[in-house]
Amino acid sequence: MPVRVLIIDDSATMRAILAARLSGVPDILVVGMASNAAEGRQLIKELEPDVVTLDIEMPGMNGLDFLDKIMTLRPTPVIMVSSLTQANSDQTARALALGAVDCYCKTDFSGSAMDDGGKLAGMVREASRVRVRRRAPELAAMAMPVKAANRETKLIAIGSSTGGVEALQVLLGHFPADCPPTVIVQHVDARFAPAIARTLDASSRATVMLGDADMPLKRGTVYLAPGGERHMLVAGGAMPHIKLRPGDPVSGHRPSVDALFHSVASAMGRDAVGILLTGMGADGAHGLLAMAQAGAHTIAQDEASCTVFGMPRVAISLGAARVVAPIGAIAQHALG
Asked: Which three-class secondary structure state does DSSP give residue 175?
């Protein structure tokens, strides 16, 4: 059966463009279009789509408020559709923290406005395989911090993908202000990475920023990979710092969790903690195994709390995770 998609956008032109980008794709069917949240809510009830594309700026109820209602009352995989203004990027990052599966830029096209090279169709296919649950109460409130009792931990490395922004918000909400230096690779369009860093910073006691080349790693700071054409690595065990290196995708991604974890295994060994969160595919699984073999403490998110139990599942099957825990308990295992 084709993936059934509902498009919600206040612009008739944009609805037509999005529909055109999905037309002719044999495994995807646009079953309806709505111009506002009220129409969208009714069509979600009537059509029960597999995936919803949702505009951020709409008259009446905006996309963020409507997304919150969808995830609370009728969880459905949602792809946010955004322009590349800073305001919209910030809103898109907040939408990912609320549980949106992915974000799609309105300006993405190849050759004509009706052709994006299959990018939207690929997002829809991946979204259709995501298991979306009602938002847990812990996702809506700042968590109580876990005291960083393990002073031997010199670095925490985290990898995440689909559902990762939401999971990271919970995890970092448990981190104290003086947490060990923390590095993160989250699979996301590089154009939205700055906004995601700002969103995570707003919900964390530690400082969250984008990582940059040769940046020293300091306590109380979390460094998010900037994405784009470079991998984020860790170098220098005595004075650990960030390296941004160009290179081919690793495990299908750039930046790659595997690339980060392998560098941490080499540079930090047993002084590090590795955490692999929700995500599709296997990126990070072999890197987490390398960290475990180097003596690091390794943790994987459990199936029940994952949006997609892909990357953690592979890591667990390899014997890479010494601990498997729900997202709300991972900080305790990492810091306790």
From this structure: coil
Which positions are annotated as active-site residues?
161, 187, 283
Q: Which two tokens stand for residue 276?
A: 């692999």
User: Which of the listed residues 128, 151, 167 is the one where a domain comes to its end?
Assistant: 128
- Residue 331 forms part of a structural domain: yes
Return the structure tokens found at 183: 């590095």
Token pair listed for 236: 């220098």
Question: Which has the closest alpha carbon to 275: 306, 237, 229?
Answer: 306
* DSSP string across 19-74: HHHHTT-TTEEEEEEESSHHHHHHHHHHH--SEEEEES--SSS-HHHHHHHHHHHS
- Give the domain extent around 160: 138-335
CATH code, 323: 3.40.50.180
Per-residue pLDDT of the chain (336 residues; tens, 9 = 90+): 899 999 999 999 999 999 999 988 999 999 999 999 999 999 999 999 999 999 988 888 999 999 999 998 899 999 999 886 677 789 989 999 999 999 998 877 655 666 788 999 999 999 999 988 765 544 444 566 776 555 479 999 999 999 999 999 999 999 999 999 999 999 998 999 999 999 999 999 999 999 999 999 999 999 999 989 999 999 987 899 999 999 999 999 999 999 999 999 999 999 999 999 999 999 999 999 999 999 999 999 999 999 999 999 999 999 999 999 999 999 999 997
Question: Are 195 and 273 in a shared domain?
Answer: yes
The count of domains in the chain is 2
253 phi/psi in degrees, rounded to 5: -140, 150
Q: Read off the pTM.
A: 0.92
In a domain, 133, yes or no: no
Q: Which amino acid is at 58?
A: M
For the domain that residue 101 is a member of, what is the CATH number? 3.40.50.2300
